Amino acid sequence: MNCVQLLVDTATRLPEKTALVFRNEETSYKDLVNQIFKFANGLRENGIKENMHVGILMGNSPQYIISYYALLSIGATVVPLNPQYREKELAYILNNADAVALIYHNVLDPIVQLAKPDLPTTNLFIEYSEAKPDCTWNQLLNHEPIEALVERNPDDTAQILYTSGTTGLPKGAMITDDNLAWMTEIMARELGTVEEDRCIVVLPVFHALAKMAGLWGPFYVGATVYLEERFIPDAILEMIEREKITIFTGVPTMFTFFAHSPRLKDFDYSSLRIFGSGGASIPVEIIDRIRNEIGVEIAEAYGQTEATIMITAMPLGAEKVPGSVGQPVDGIDFRIVTPDNKDVPQGEIGEIIFRGRNAMKGYYKNPEATAQKIDADGWLHTGDRGYLDEDGYLYVEGRLEQDMIVLPNGENIHPDNIESKIN
Predict the structure, then answer these.
(1) What is the spatial distance between Cα 292 and Cα 17, in angstroms, rounded to a whole number?
(2) Which of 258, 251, 256 is closest to 276 using CA atoms?
(3) What three-state secondary structure class fits 228?
(4) Of the candidates 73, 70, 76, 51, which has an alpha carbon nearest to the alpha carbon of residue 150?
(5) What's the CA gap between 354 and 305, in Å, rounded?
(6) Which among 145, 129, 127, 150 is positioned nearest to 42, based on CA atoms?
(7) Sign of the CA dihedral 149, 153, 157, 158?
(8) DSSP state letters, 196-219
(9) For residue 283, what pLDDT band results from cuts at 50, 70 and 90?
(10) Percent of the chain, pLDDT > 70?
(11) If DSSP codes are grouped into helix, strand and coil, which group holds residue 334?
(12) Is 1 in contact with 152 (CB distance < 8 Å)?
């Protein structure tokens, strides 16, 4: 099965339901799938075939969503790219991923042009421009829709997500069709997402958390996604009241901004069902302040890119356990171990490891790093330290090696990358 079938099924069941709201413009599920299928045919007519790797360099926009699902529809592999990359970072990842094409927004054209001389295998450039109705992207959209999805095997690579490791060099985590399909169901179940939900997506959609919690999960159940281009704390708080938002998923820095906003108590949050957070643990004082000021609990979860994003989550409806990121999700094996892979006693700190259908296939073209990450018994070593309490709740205590720096918009950056830019 092609993982896009999950979205197609929703469009069949709820064709006129609003799938997406962007800049106050609504798109129904039927129209969204139709645009995806038309763009998919345009890609195919321009030589993009099954298992080819294609980069997407765009901010949050309907064009990103259409491009992403269109590539998956024809069996291509998506390489999501951070719009803040400089030309050397962009060239490194496109080359490492063997990308044959790049879909990008024209505001990023200066970076693309600087990178082009160093892109020997990337020979198709598809530019989107709001100011140019005849831009390449629109030309590809001007096709008849494909008739059917390309069938995929569960272990086929759907996307390659580049993540900074402890060496500072990005590695491409291969996420399969089965990873996406399974995690979509888990994400919707853990958040209790339903058709009536209204979800804000302001995290960058190139990021794994935004894709799973903000697109795959809501689209699977027929919820409505409100896509925002940038994080402006007070504007998001006002939007929660105005649009009667039920789910907001962010990262700890966003909740810190909320907690310190002088307008925090100015809005009505009665519609809000879930304030979800991932990426790192939130300071207890921030959780307490938001609970005490506006009466909303923050539900924390834990995961990483290599886990298709989620490993643990706070059980739905359970009382918040301060400092914890929840319990292991159903369907995975989970352990806390010593350096020699022995289970630690309950309450003692060790490395968090897991295995299951959320585990990546491996790092692209990097068998050595894959072998270091996934052991011979299939356990994926997260590199994170933590412990379990007597009720099975996980507490994360940091990295085994040097920590990432988490930026306010949820992106991770390795300290070595900062040093190289300074130099």
Answers:
(1) 36
(2) 251
(3) coil
(4) 73
(5) 13
(6) 145
(7) positive
(8) T-EEEE-S-TTSHHIIIIIIIHHH
(9) confident
(10) 94
(11) strand
(12) yes
